[in-house]
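User: Run a structure prediction on this.
Assistant: Running it now.
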Amino acid sequence: MNNRCFSNPLQLRLVTEVRKFFWLLGLSLLACVPCAAGDAPQWMHTAAAASLPTYDEKTNAVLLYSSMDVNVVSADKIKTTVREVYKIVRPGGREHGKVHIYFNPQRKIKGLHGWCIPAQGKDFEVKDKDATEIALDLVGAELIDDTRYKVIDIPASDPGNVIGYEYEVEEKPFFLQDMWAFQGPDPVRESHYSLQLPAGWEYKASWMNHDEIKPVDAGHNSWQWAVTDVAAIRQEPAMPAFQGIAGQLVITLFPAGGKAATGFAEWQDLGTWVNALLAGRGDASPEIKQQVASLTAGKSTQLEKMQAIAHFVQHEIRYVAIELGIGGWQPHPAPEVFAHRYGDCKDKALLTRSMLKEIGIDSFQVAINTRRGAILASTPPHNYGFNHNIIAVKLPDGMNDPSLVATMQHPKLGRILFFDPTDEMTPFGQIRGSLQANYALLVTPQGGELLPLPQQPSAMNGIERTGKLALDDKGTLTGQIKETRLGERASSERWALRTITKNEDRIKPIENVLAGSLSSFQITHASISNLTHTDEPFGFDYSFQSAEYAKNVGGLILVRPRVVGVKAEGFLETKEPRRFPIEFDGPVRDTDTFEITIPAGYEVDEVPPPVDADYEFASYHSKIEVKSNVIDYTRTFEVKELSVPTARAEELRKFYRIIASDERNNVVLKAAAK
C-alpha cells in the first residue's frame, strides 16, 4: 500500500510505463552499452525453439517464457530469481530490450544478465558489469525517494529476434506478501511461479481475474504454479484500471507458529498493520494547536471550523513526497509536516486528522486507488493495490449541511464524510469522480475494512451553458454564452488555469470549446469568475462571432441549434468487439440552452423532432421550440452509472449515435411570406 499518487515500484511489471518511458526517450540517459558474443542459456534456447500460433497485426512481442522463483529464507530475507524471454514480432516490441530493475536499501540486486538470440548469427550477451544505474525522476521535485534502477540495453532487439534476461534480488520485506503478475500487454506462451518456504511455514494463494490453479507440490514445503497461452490486455479507451482486469496471484505468507503482524489474511490485518505505522504520529504539537486556534477563532459552528482546517491543509501544505525506506507506507509525524509545510497524500491526511482532533472531531485514514476498479469487492486482501490516502471524518450528530455530499452511514461509526486533503480543487464536503463508487480501505482502531465510497448526485458535477445569439441573413452568428461549472467540470478548469496569468492564455479553454463546434469564430469578449474560490461555481462568460455559421441551400437557410459543446463519443465505432467494461470519469449532468433570433424576413419551416434516449447508465434529452422569431434549443446529458459492462457496450454505442445525430441536426428557415 505505497501511498504515492502513482503506482509503487512493485507494480511496474503490471503497467510497463517506465519501460515505455525509456523507449520514448530513446535511451538518451544511457551510454552505448558494450556487448560481447556469448551463448544464451539453454532455458532461453528452449523457449525460442517453441512453435507459436499466429498473432494479429497488433502484437509487438510475445512473452515466450517467464519464471519467478521465490525462496523465503526467513521473515527478514526473501530471494527471488526472475527469467523472461521475448520474441520480438514488430518494431514496437523493441522496448523489451531495455531492461530496468529497481533496487533500494531493502532490495539488493545480486545479479543481472541479458542475451539476444538473433534470427541469424551468434548470440549476444550483456553482463551485470555492463549495466547503468540511474534514478528515474517521473514527477520532478515533488518526489524524493531512495529507489534507483539498474538498466541494461540488450542489443539487436529487432523483429524476428529473441531477447531474454535473468536477475536475482534479495529483499528485506516490510510485509509478508508477494504478487505474481502474469498477464500484461503482450500475449504469454507460458509463465511459472515457484515458492520455497522454511519448515513449518504456510501460505495462502488468492487469484485475481483468473480461475484458480492448483499448485504442484514439489516437496520440502515447495510449491509450483504455471499458466499457458495467456491473452494480451490491449488498451481500450475508458477501460478499467489495469490492476482490476489483469491476471494475478497474491501469496500471503504465515511463519511457523501462526500469523505474523506483517501478513494480511484479511483486510482487517492490513488495517492493523497501518495502525502500527500511524501510532503516535498524529499527536499535535504546540504549534499545531496554536494554528488550529487561529484558524477557528471567530468561527461559530463546528462545520465552519472543519472547513477552515480543510482549506488550510489543501492550500497551505505543499505536495512533496519524501519516501525513504518505510516512508513509502508510513506518514511523517504531523508536527514535521506542519513545520515544513509540505508532505505527500498520507502526510496531509494525517495532519488534517491531527488538526481536526483539536476541535473534537474524530477521523480515520483511508487508503484508495485513484483509478476506480483497481480494487473491487472481490479483491483478496493485499498491499499492492492502493496508491493514495484520504480521510473519513466522523460527523457530529445533527450535522446535515447540504454542502456535505460525500457521506455514508457506517454501521458502527455513524455518518462519515470522505475528504481528500491533497485535492486542492475539490472543496470540503465533496470528492472527485475517480474516488466515487470506488473501493477503499477504512482504517479504524479495530483494523481495516474494505468499503465502497459514495457516488455523488450527478447534479453536483456539470456545465450549465446558456446562450443568447442572433443570426443575420448572411449566416453570421453573433452572441453571448455563459457557462456555470460545478464539481470536476469546474476543478479541471481551475487546475488548468492555476498557473496562467496572461489574459490571452486564460481564454484558451474558451477557444477550445468554440473550435470543437465552429469552423470559424472571433472572440469579442471573455471573462472568468471564481477561479480561486473553490466553494463557488466556476464560470466562463464569452461573446463571439462566427461567419457562415448557417448555410444557404437553394434559398433555404440551415441552422444548427446546438451551437457549442460535444457530448457524442466515437471510441466504440470499431470493428473489434469490446473486451472490457467502459468507465465514466464520474456522474455528470450537463445542460445547454441556446436562444437564436432568426434574421428578419425569415420564418421557421422545419424543426427536428425531440430526442429522448434514456438508459440505466445515462440519458439524453433535447427539444426545440419556436417562440416568434426565436429558436429555443435545450438539452440535458446525464451520466447515472459509472461503469457499463461489456455486454451493454452496444447500447452505449447506440446512445452516442443518437447524440451525434442530434448534434448534427438543422432547423430549416425559409423566406417569410409577404
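The longest strand covers residues 61-74.
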